[in-house]
C-alpha cells in the first residue's frame, strides 16, 4: 500500500495485534491506520473497542503470583520487563504478589484471596509454583463447597478460575508441553487473548489419604532420585538437574515392586502414535474426540473390574506416569511424546533393569527422533489408574525419616555411586515435589469434556480431571489487543 501523507490523512489510530513469528513464538506488533476525518477515526476506534469488550473470554482483572526464587531467580524481572507492559497495553489490571516463602501462593489462594473479583490467576515461576496454585485453588473450591478433600468417596467440585503460566522456572514442562515454547512474552499474549486449554489432573492417595495432585510427571526411580538429589543443590539453579541426573545415572539403582494398572481400552490413540497433542493444534480436537468416547463409557470406568487390571512385577530403573507429553527444553518431544493433554489418561512407562549403556541409549532417545519406547526393556501403557507397591514394606519409622529429609541405607548407597547394591525404595517425583511414600495408588476418572474442571476422588487413587490451567493458543495468529488513538503530528495546515 502506498504511504499516505499525514497531511492528507491527519487522524490516525494504532492497533496492537498478536503475530506468530516463528513456530510457537508469538510477538506483539502494531499497525497504524490513517483517516481523513476525526469523526471517522473515532467511529473506528469506538467500534473496535466495542468488539474487544464483547470478547468475554479475555481477562480484565488478574491476580499474579511471582516466585522470585524459581529457576534463575529472574521471576520479578521477567514479569516487570516483559509481561506487565503487555498487560497494560491490553487494559488488563493486576494485583501482584511476590511470594515470601514456599506455599505462600498456595495458602493465599486457599484462604485469603478474594477470587470473585478476578478473571484468572497467573503464576510466574516453574512447575512447582504452578503446582502450588493448583493445590490452592482446588482445596479452596472444595472447602467453599463443603467437600472433604481427604474423603476418597466424595466428588470434588469444579473450580472455575483459569491459571496462566509465565515460565520462570527450571524445567517449565507444563508451559512448554502446552504452549510449545517456554517464552514469557508468548505466554503473556496467550493470557491476553483469553486462550484456554483443559488438562488432566491426577490426585495421588496413600492408604485412603490424599497426598497431592499431579499434572505432568509422577516418576519413581530415576526421576525420583534425580529430584531428591537436586533439591539439596537448589543453589545451582536449573543446572542442578543435569548434575543430579548425571550422578543418578551413574548410581544406576533399580527398585523392585509391583505395578498394577487399568489400561485405557476405550480410547483412540496409543502412546506409540506419531501424533502430538498441544494446544492450538488440530490434535486438540482429536483429544476431545476421545474424551467424548470416554465420557460415554465413563460409567464402566467407575467399575474397574469390568475392564481388568494388569499386574507387572519386576526390577525397575524408572516408573514414569506422564499425564501430558512432559516436553521441555531438555527433551522437546518429552517423556511420552504422544500423550494427550485432556484425555483422562496417563502414559505409564516402565523401564526395567538394564545395562547402563542401554539406559543411556534410552535417555538419549528423548533428545532425538528415535523412539524411546522401542527397546526390549521399556514398555508403555496408556492407563486410567495405577498403583505401585514396593517389594519391601515401608515401616512408619522409615516414612518419618523420609519426611524429615533423611534416608536409611539408601542414603549410603546414593553417596557411593560405585556401590552395586540398590536401596529398597526410591521417592515419587510428583511434578517436581517429593512424595515420602513409595506405595501409592493411582486411579483415573475424568470428565474433560466438561470444560469446568471436575474432580472425582476414589479410594486410594490418583485420578485425572479436567482443569483450565492455561491460557493457551487456539486462535489464528492475528488479534487486535489494544487500540491507541492519536492525531498525526503534522496536521493539515490551516
Ligand atoms: C544424555 C542426555 C540425556 C538427556 C535425557 C533428558 C530427558 C529429560 C526428560 C525430562 C522430563 C522432565 C519431566 C518434567 C518434570 C517436572 O514435573 C519436574 C518439575 O519441574 N522436573 C523435574 O523433575 C526435573 C527432571 C530433570 C531430569 C533431568 C535428567 C537429566 C539426565 C541426564 C543424564 C546424563 C547421563 C550422561 C551420561 C554420560
Ligand atoms: N518466596 C519463596 N521462597 C522460597 N521458595 C518459594 C518461594 N515462592 C515459591 N517457592 C517454592 O519454590 C519452589 C520452586 O519454584 P518453581 O517451580 O517456580 O521453580 P523451579 O523449581 O526452579 O522450576 P521447575 O519447577 O520448573 O523445575 C516451588 O515448589 C515453590 O513452592
Ligand atoms: Ca493425558
TrEMBL record:
One Pfam family matching this protein: PH_CERK
Domain of life: Eukaryota
GO biological process: ceramide metabolic process
Family matches, as InterPro entries: ATP-NAD_kinase_N, CERK_C, CERK_PH, Diacylglycerol_kinase_cat_dom, Lipid_Phosphate_FormReg, NAD/diacylglycerol_kinase_sf
SMART domains named among the record's database cross-references: DAGKc
Residue ranges constituting the DAGKc domain according to the UniProt record: 57-208
Annotated GO MF terms: ceramide kinase activity
A GO term from the CC aspect: membrane
Name of this protein: Ceramide kinase
Gene name for this UniProt entry: CERK
Amino acid at each position: 500500500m502506498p504511504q499516505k501523507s499525514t497531511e492528507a490523512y491527519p487522524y490516525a489510530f494504532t492497533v496492537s495485534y498478536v503475530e506468530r513469528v516463528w513456530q510457537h513464538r508469538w510477538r506483539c506488533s502494531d499497525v497504524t491506520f490513517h483517516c481523513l476525518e476525526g469523526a471517522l477515526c473515532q467511529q473506528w476506534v469506538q467500534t473496535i473497542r466495542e468488539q474487544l469488550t464483547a470478547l468475554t473470554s479475555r481477562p480484565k482483572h488478574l491476580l499474579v503470583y511471582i516466585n522470585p526464587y524459581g529457576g534463575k531467580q529472574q521471576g520479578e524481572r521477567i514479569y516487570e520487563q516483559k509481561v506487565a507492559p503487555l498487560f497494560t497495553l491490553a487494559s488488563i489490571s493486576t494485583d501482584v504478589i511476590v511470594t515470601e516463602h514456599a506455599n505462600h501462593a498456595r495458602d493465599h489462594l486457599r484462604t485469603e484471596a478474594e477470587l470473585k473479583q478476578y478473571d484468572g490467576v497467573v503464576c510466574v515461576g516453574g512447575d512447582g509454583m504452578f503446582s502450588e496454585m493448583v493445590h490452592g485453588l482446588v482445596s479452596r473450591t472444595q472447602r467453599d463447597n463443603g467437600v472433604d478433600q481427604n474423603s476418597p468417596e466424595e466428588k470434588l467440585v469444579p473450580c472455575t478460575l483459569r491459571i496462566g503460566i509465565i515460565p520462570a522456572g527450571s524445567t517449565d514442562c507444563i508451559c512448554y508441553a502446552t504452549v510449545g515454547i517456554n517464552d514469557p512474552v508468548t505466554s503473556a499474549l496467550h493470557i491476553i487473548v483469553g486462550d484456554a486449554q483443559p488438562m488432566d489432573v491426577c490426585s495421588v492417595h496413600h492408604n485412603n489419604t490424599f497426598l497431592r495432585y499431579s499434572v505432568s510427571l509422577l516418576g519413581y526411580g530415576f526421576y525420583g532420585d534425580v529430584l531428591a538429589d537436586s533439591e539439596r543443590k537448589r543453589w545451582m539453579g536449573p543446572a542442578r538437574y543435569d548434575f543430579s541426573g548425571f550422578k543418578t545415572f551413574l548410581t544406576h539403582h533399580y527398585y523392585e515392586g509391583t505395578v498394577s494398572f487399568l489400561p485405557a481400552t476405550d480410547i483412540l490413540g496409543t502412546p506409540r502414535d506419531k501424533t502430538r497433542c498441544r494446544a492450538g493444534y488440530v490434535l486438540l480436537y482429536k483429544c476431545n474426540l476421545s474424551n467424548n468416547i470416554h465420557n460415554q463409557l465413563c460409567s464402566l470406568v467407575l467399575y474397574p473390574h469390568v475392564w481388568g487390571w494388569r499386574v507387572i512385577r519386576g526390577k525397575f530403573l524408572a516408573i514414569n506416569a506422564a499425564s501430558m507429553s512432559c516436553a521441555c527444553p531438555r527433551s522437546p518431544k518429552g517423556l511420552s511424546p504422544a500423550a494427550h493433554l485432556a484425555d483422562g489418561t496417563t502414559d505409564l512407562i516402565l523401564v526395567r533393569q538394564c545395562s547402563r549403556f542401554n539406559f543411556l541409549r534410552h535417555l538419549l532417545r528423548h533428545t532425538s527422533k528415535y523412539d524411546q519406547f522401542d527397546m526390549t526393556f521399556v514398555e508403555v501403557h496408556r492407563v486410567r489408574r495405577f498403583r505401585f507397591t514396593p517389594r519391601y514394606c515401608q515401616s512408619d519409622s522409615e516414612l518419618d525419616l523420609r519426611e524429615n529429609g533423611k534416608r536409611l541405607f539408601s542414603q549410603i548407597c546414593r553417596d557411593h555411586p560405585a556401590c552395586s547394591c540398590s536401596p529398597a525404595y526410591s521417592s515419587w517425583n510428583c511434578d517436581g515435589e517429593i512424595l515420602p511414600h513409595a506405595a501409592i495408588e493411582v486411579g483415573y476418572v475424568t470428565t474433560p469434556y466438561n470444560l469446568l474442571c471436575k474432580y472425582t476422588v476414589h479410594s486410594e487413587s490418583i485420578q485425572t480431571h479436567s482443569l483450565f490451567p492455561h491460557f493457551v493458543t487456539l486462535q489464528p495468529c492475528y488479534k487486535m489487543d489494544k487500540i491507541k488513538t492519536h492525531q498525526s503530528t503534522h496536521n493539515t495546515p490551516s
